Amino acid sequence: MSTVFSNSALRALAFWVLTLWLAQNAIALPTFSRQTEKPCAACHLNVGELTPEGRKFKLMGYTAGKSVLPFSVTAIGSVTKIHDTTSSADSTIFLAKNNEPIIEQASLYAAGKYWDNVGGYIKWTSNQANTNPLYASSGIQTGTKVGQDNYLDTSEVRMSNRASWGKHNAVWGFSVNNAPGVQDLWSTGPVYGFPYQSSNLLNAWGIGQFGPSTLIDGGLASQVIGLSAYMMIDDTYYLEIADYRRSQPGWGTLSTAGPNTNTISSGNNPYVRLAWNKTQGDNSYMVGAFGMNSHLARDPLVVGSASGTYFDYGFDTQFQHITSTHSYSAQATLIYEDINWGLRSVGRSHDNPSANLVTLKTKLTYDYARKYGLSVFEFASKGTVDNLYWAYNSDQTVVTGACNQNNSILAFCSSNGSPNTVGSGLELYYDPIPYVHMVFQQTYYQTFLGGATFVDNSIGNPRKASDNNLSYFYILLSY
Fold it and tell me: Considering only Cβ atoms within 10 Å of each terminal Cβ, which end of the chain, N or C, has fewer?
């Protein structure tokens, strides 16, 4: 038997048998679809992109329709493959589960209308990819955490109402949520921007799919609690203001899948969102801006890390043309981040007391018959050179930032101290039956962490940017 089937082949066979069995049994309507008595395609183009009707449903607090049992579940099975791992000391440990089929995660939702004008979704996730890195005696990563992570995922509860005066009308309300941007109506900004699903193994490997990212771009998800007030006037002008605080220490259900590497202070951390929105027939348009001022405490898990103040502000735009046959959409998001660590960090974890980072993401999507889709995307990160934080250092006695050998949190490091990363990619999706979403993502890197080459942090060997080219296939099942 062993001569015919390897252990990995048997695992793959079992994985796909289980996935196909789940797909054939994923026939019950998810909560929002049962509640509104409409198909998922009424509110979504692709799995994470809201249509005008979906944005209206969210704006009104998820309360449209009838009251139903507010529970749904989702599960993701996937394969993640990084192109070349030959530079690693032991790639089977250092990049564990590379090119192996896994049951990646499962989530339980309490979602929908709770009362007449109160609704939302509360999401608990079990992350089977095990995203906490372990460390060897030398400090480098040696694999992923044994066991699984269970946590309160990005969630929100809304209270909404209507108002009118003269010829004007408005929708106003409040949102309690645990991730800045999760309450946003458009598929462009933090948390719910593209890609709508990324491999959880990237967190375990210390690789950002789009390179270094700003704090507002999901860096505080599930680690904070906030209250926002919002208003949409004449279905055109949107304004939201919010404030976030650190989640109560010791609440296990308010922790992320991995370590709290971004520990927000207990003080005020304001967030603001502005947008102009217009829907005309099959077309809709949006131009917006957002920003947040965050105060981070020193990361207790990283020796030599620094506290700091992060000021993030961004601009985004979206166009959609949505019909039952041919649909198109385009999104772009530009985020600026200014960081001030203070003089205390100089020479310890950073070269300078301050730095900046700029990120850009763009995406184009074509959808046929609300069943088949193709997206192409580009991304770029550009920031301040910081050798003490980003650069590889073989001296294990040196305590620096993210790439220190005393307690590394990155699988890969820069060879020149630059975080600059540029790449592109494509995504193909197919929805064979309701509530089954199949996706293949391919990501290509022109530069990674500062140039065409960078450093493997497990042993110090050089790598080409193209070695990190990433293939990701997943199946999302809803019930």
Answer: N
